[in-house]
Amino acid sequence: MNRTLFLSLAGAGLLLSGCSSVLVERDYDAAFNFQTLETYAWKHAVQPETGVPRIDNDLNDRRIRQAVDDTLRAKGFTLAENPAAADFHVEYFMEFRQRIESSGGSVSLGIGSYSGGRAGSLGWSTGANVSDYEEAQLTIDILEPNADRTIWRGRGLRRASSSADPAKLTSRTQEVVSRILKKFPPQ
Predict the structure, then answer these.
(1) Which of 21, 43, 74, 156 is 20 to 30 Å from 12 at the Cα level?
(2) Do 27 and 152 form a contact (C-beta atoms < 8 A)?
């Protein structure tokens, strides 16, 4: 494999891996004592219907709940047998949005020499490539059960996947949930 082909393939791999990244945002109540939390329960035993078939999907609901349970369990939290006795409640929301992107303009400068002297060139691009894509957003809320108020919120955004492979969907869901909950509880 020649060097140019290798660099092209490596660049394409980096570009594709960049498309799968997750942008995560978090917010929390700085006055809340998160060190007191040990047990949790789901706010809703059954995910509330939104009227959007893509979101109201019990397969995705089970994937998300399992990923949250696995992540919280790995952090030392226990799913309460009695939801009323839990230290905190968990709920989530899904959303899909259409997004538009365009390539930015660019300028290039070339300078060189040849047997008759030197030459230069200037080129520019207006960024005419426009495309649309779908963005998926998963929001996970941690609630104080007695007051039913949000004490921590994490949100993950990424390009939506059109994969129909259940193993890939499960893996991507686990990745997004673990990235969202990575800094829960806040230190």
Answers:
(1) 156
(2) yes
Question: What is the C-alpha separation between 151 and 30, in angstroms, rounded?
Answer: 8
Residue 155 has a pLDDT of: 97
Q: Are 159 and 96 contacting, i.e. CB atoms less than 8 angstroms apart?
A: no
Residue in this structure with the two tokens 């996947």, named with its chain if needed: 161
Structure-block tokens of residue 30: 């700085």
Greatest extent of the chain over all pairs of C-alpha atoms, in Å: 86
Residue 136 contacts residue 159 (beta carbons within 8 Å) = yes
Q: Can you tell me the distance from the alpha carbon of 77 to that of 79, in angstroms, rounded to the nearest whole number?
A: 7
The answer to whether the beta carbons of residues 64 and 92 sit under 8 Å apart is: yes
Quote the pTM value: 0.73
Instruction: Please give the structure tokens belonging to residue 96.
Output: 């899909």
* Residue 89, Cβ density class (10 Å: 0-12 exposed, 13-18 middle, ≥19 buried): buried
Q: pLDDT of 55-75, one tens digit each? A: 889 999 999 999 999 999 999
